[in-house]
Design goal:
The complex is a heterodimer. By secondary structure, chain A is mainly α. Chain A is built from 9 helices and 2 strands. Chain A is elongated, with a radius of gyration of 21 Å. In chain A, a hairpin with a 3-residue loop joins strand 1 and strand 2. Chain B is mainly α. Chain B is elongated, with a radius of gyration of 21 Å. The chains are: A mainly alpha, B mainly alpha. Chains A and B meet through helix 3, helix 4, helix 5, helix 7 and helix 8 of A and helix 4, helix 7, helix 8 and helix 9 of B.
Amino acid sequence: MSIASEVIDWFTEQSHWRGTFGVPHRLREHLYLAGASLGAAFVLTFPLAVWLGHRRKGAFLAVNVANIGRAIPSLAILLLAVQWLGLKEWPVVGSVTAWMALTALALAPILTNTYIGLRDVPDAVRESAAAMGMTGWQQALKVELPLALPLALAGLRTAAVQVVATATLAAPVGAGGLGRFIVDGLAVRDFATVVAGAILVAALAIVVDTLFALTGCRLLRHRAE
Amino acid sequence: MLGASKSSWLDWKWIGDNLQLIRSTLGEHLILTGLTLLLGVAVAVPVALASRRWRWLYPPVTSVAGILYTIPSLAAYALLIPYTGLGSRTTTVVPLVTYTLLILVRNIVTGLDQVPGPAREAAEAMGYSPRRLLVRVELPLALPAILAGLRLAAVTTVGLATVASLVGSKNLGWLMLFPGFQQGRRTPILVGAVLAVLLAAAIDAVFLAIERLASPWRRADGGQRRRVEPRAAA
């Protein structure tokens, strides 16, 4: 039997869609872990990035967080974190350690893009806002932030795709998620399960990327009208 | 087996006993990265030149490269296993090459587009043929942008290659995962991670040196360091 038909059989097999080892449960684990990481990274970084961008200070921080984040392999971050702290299972996120590692990964794109977006708002715009009597906070939130939105959203999108992709690597360190199908399939050389898992993971990443792209388009079109 | 163990982070005896293993995984990692960058350039340059000649090609090319870029690396390796086998170099290098395409094609096209019009016109007025214009004027002027793309591609490749250890590639990721994580030993994880970062930094430094050697006109300001600018993710 060819691998393609084996994979089709895998997807049509009822038992693969039920229970703890079923697709819906694994998808939920994956989305909860990725969503919680993106949320935490946003809450931690966004206000800081807005403030730094408004003050036009801290380029050093924005550059270095981004570069260090890129240089350390995400697999290494996960392995080191789990070796150091253990998995620490929790409700919703699954593994606290994986959650923290993925949060760290999502910080850089949100920080850098939001920072640059606000920092690069033209002086003329800032001066007009000041001349209209706006306070610093009003300038930042009512003028600079809306103008920085396209870049900030692009950063959020990058972070989201990265987190969804790297959540797959939570499986080899012992947590759940869609990566389990790949890892468990590899362990017993069951390549139909491996490929089915890979298709699920790839599809999820592409869907998340597209959703963020469409949301960005809608938000921006709405503003242009 | 899984979870925190109390083994030492830096067990010099383990390192001493396993120097051969560490060297071979580092070597494999370097080979994988080198192959990926070579093949990436070999594919990206013609694609970039084609999408500059036929502009309508550029949007679909970047969308396809963007979709390929979105696919998580473990999924990409896993998808190839039935065709290229577990543990083969092809299984590792093919996805890695596809990840470099988006970065490389975009940087080559942007770099070539940024060549000042007067430079191009001067060469044309001097009777340069289109090919000579490309090789002697446009590519050298676009080199900093192209090398910036290569540097980013190299760092990404070093990181993503570690994941291929899950499908049997014996690179630095394998060192972290099997003698390290699965055996509850911390030292190999740390050694693998540190060597991966150092490898990325070393490749980065090499490209930076090439950039400085290949574009002497950028040093006309007396070698003053350019300001480091944060780069936005697109």
